[in-house]
Amino acid sequence: MKIEALLTEKHINLNLESGSKDEVIDTLLAMVSSHAKVSDTKQLAEDVRKREREMSTGIGKNIGLPHAKTSAVTEPVLALVTLAGEVDFESIDNQPVKIVFLLATPETMLAEHLKLLGRITRIAGRDDVRRKLLDAATPGEVLALFREEEKDLPQI
């Protein structure tokens, strides 16, 4: 399981206009609502928002990573947006976000959940990767970027 295998062009939105953290999360949830691996969109939204209330998922370096371990998905689900502007995500480094991933994994896949969070953080946390994500003109460019970055990494 790799990031580029979990993402599809349909689940990537570039240069999203959004004014708030909640709007960004709502957009990401809407993007995955028809995903074949999402069995309960209402439960997914509740679980993602519950996790966000516990602690902000603004992980620093202009990245937001709302996520949940949830019974609402049958396999890991991933979506990504880049933002036309900046949004306050109450990040740990007090910086606004420009790139936001949504990750949902089944409750039974704790190890995979943690490994995916780590991989997203490591790859997207690099300055050159963030720059390329923000400069990407098409979802295909984003998928190609992750394919290249993960080519020598093991499956999760």
Comma- or semicolon-separated keywords:
six-stranded mixed sheet, 6 strands, alpha/beta
Account of the 3D structure:
With 156 residues, the chain is an alpha/beta fold. It contains six helices and six strands. A hairpin with a 2-residue loop joins β2 and β3. α2 packs antiparallel against α3. The N and C termini lie close together (5 Å).
Would you count the extended β strands for me? 6
Share of residues in helices: 40-55%
Strand proportion: 15-25%
**Spans where pLDDT lies below 50 across 5 or more residues:** none
Q: How do the helices and strands follow one another from N- to C-terminus?
A: HEHHEEEEEHHH
Query: Which structural class fits the helix and strand makeup?
Result: alpha/beta
What overall form do the CA principal axes indicate?
Answer: globular
Overall mean pLDDT stands at 96
What is the makeup of the main sheet? 6 strands, mixed
Terminal CA distance: 5 Å
Tally the helices: what do you get?
6
From the alpha carbons, calculate the radius of gyration and give it in angstroms: 14 Å
Summarize the structure.
With 156 residues, the protein is α/β, with parallel strands linked by helices.
Q: Strands, helices and their partners?
A:
Layout: H1 3-6, E1 12-16, H2 21-32, H3 41-54, E2 58-60, E3 63-64, E4 67-70, E5 77-87, E6 97-106, H4 110-124, H5 127-135, H6 139-150
Parallel strand pairs: 1-5, 3-6, 4-6
Antiparallel strand pairs: 2-3, 5-6
